[in-house]
Amino acid sequence: MTLLDGKATSEQIKLEIAEKVREIIARGGQRPHLIAILVGEDGASQTYVAGKERACQQVGFDSTIIRYPDTVDQSTLLDKIREINSDPNVHGLIVQLPLPKHIDEQLVINTIDPSKDVDGFHPENFGRMVLGLPTFVSATPFGIMELLERYKIETSGKKCVILGRSNIVGRPLANLLSQKGYPGDCTVTICHSRSKDIKSITLDADIIIAALGVPEFLKGDMVKEGAVVIDVGITRVKADNKAGFKLKGDVLFDEVAPKCSYITPVPGGVGPMTIVSLLKNTLRASGN
What we know:
The protein is an alpha/beta fold. The chain has helices at 6-26, 43-59, 74-85, 105-111, 123-131, 139-150, 170-178, 198-202, 253-256, 270-285, and strands at residues 2-3, 33-39, 62-68, 92-95, 159-163, 187-191, 207-210, 227-231, 235-238, 245-248, 260-263.
């Protein structure tokens, strides 16, 4: 069993990005600039955005966090997005999800300029991804594809089962892994809350990607010997420790790992790859 070490891989990619930024500055180019808009006080969102800010600093990007209370009205948020859209000194813009219920998330996503949509959520970018055209791919699927490629995991002709059908992870990954080329050429099955006898489906899978948000859903008896398992889930559960919680993935690691050829840990697997993929998209958005 080999751990797919997202932390180590992401650190290597950061070094590569930092070198490109030094080259950009040396030739008189503009430093890539990422803005994140954070609405409310959600702990997980704050932690994630802070991680993005640190990563930007590590690679030499400019980064800005714009914070609003969860009572902000929708028109104020949309006006700020339009202002950033027109700012030539900003290359990438993300609005951290989820948003308060009184704000229309899809309208917010639609308002972001597709050329600055480094999250890859805008319908134009999503559509280009489905067609196999150059675009910004959502950071988590992008990071998973990068991890598969860097570890040289064979995907052609493999049976891949994706647990979860979200527009952020499950659906984009299904499309990417079924496209021609590497990593791709998989036969992909998507399972979700209405799927029957999921165990029989996962037992036939060469690659399993768990993106349900259900802690320890995938058990040892659901995985065949030699499978590749990617755990996208990360859920805070109460624990008797200083933090008061611990992080669990969608995979019951101690049962599943001994049967795997490759598996991601939680934390330290997909999470770091998501952040570094956002950096890669921002570098691209800057025109470099």
